[in-house]
Amino acid sequence: MDEKESKPLSAFLSDAEVKVVWREEERTKVGRGMITNDDENFVYLTGDKGTVIVNKRDIIAIKQ
Q1: I want to staple 44 with a disulfide (CB 3.0 to 4.6 A). Which of 17, 30, 35, 37 is the partner?
Q2: Closest to 17 measured CA to CA, from 44, 30, 35
Q3: What is this structure's pTM?
Q4: What residue ranges define each of the domains in the chain, with the CATH number in brackets?
Q5: How far is it, in rounded angstroms, from Cα 2 to Cα 62?
Q6: For 8-26, how does the pLDDT look when each residue is reduced to its tens digit (9 = 90+)?
């Protein structure tokens, strides 16, 4: 798939509760919530405790 044709991540997971695992300063972090937005570099995960902005390069896994 060409990068110009790719849809944003938030379009695929618009109404889904997800679990995102990422690394941050040599630690593994887990966040649960909905992906409200994303751009070229970041994913915006909104959950019960607020919104977390995660760099896409640091994401290890996303599960529904």
Answers
A1: 37
A2: 35
A3: 0.80
A4: 3-63 (2.30.30.100)
A5: 22
A6: 777 777 777 999 999 999 9
